[in-house]
Write a structure and sequence with these properties.
alpha/beta; Aconitase, domain 4; about 30% helix
Length: about 160
Amino acid sequence: MIKGRAWVFGDDIDTDVIIPGKYLRTTDMQVFADHAMEGIDPDFSKNIKPGDIVVGGNNFGCGSSREQAALALKFAGVACVVARSFGRIFFRNAINVGLPLMEADVQCEEGDEVEVDLENGKVTVNGKQYAGNKLPDFLLEILNDGGLVAHRRSMMGKRKRF
């Protein structure tokens, strides 16, 4: 269960807005965190608290294939992204870096308390429950392990040696 304060954004939030291109030459995750969502809300990184939840509309994370967009949100402290739909590559990048997300049509206001139940595909806002798309078990395993690299390492440790 993930609980946090809502940060609400609209439709077609692209990866250039999530992390502007001028910050892509670094591998410093703090730089990504400090500039997350700068293209749409310059104060986002100053005001977000660890555990907060981004709520978007249609096509969240559209645009380029930059993995840094998902990393920027994760290292800024975003616990989960809920949106009506996601850009296909952003969705996969988020899973790969261990950033939970759920497709759900959620109505909420900035600052509302949001609760996301990934295992059952449900989102609750102010006591009202919304049905979301439940992630397949194998994607939940990747998220629970902290991302694809951590998951593969975990799987290597579970292999039987002959």
